[in-house]
Write a structure and sequence with these properties.
A hairpin with a 2-residue loop joins strand 1 and strand 2 (18-21). By secondary structure, the protein is of the alpha+beta class. It has one helix and two strands. It has one domain (7-45). The protein has one helix spanning 23-29, and strands at residues 12-15, 18-21. It is elongated, with a radius of gyration of 14 Å.
Length: 55
Amino acid sequence: MIPDDLVDGIDYYMEDGFRVFTAIYLQGRGYCCQSGCRHCPYGFKAVQPEPETQE
């Protein structure tokens, strides 16, 4: 659940209609959700699946 008291420019910013959380917000949340957030302060990187090759 996303809190109602988020501050634009500090906790998040908008990009292409999506809310992008900042490292400040994510660190303040206190845990890593392991979703591969762009600004993850915990160092988690989501593994992208290899593209299928057509032979």
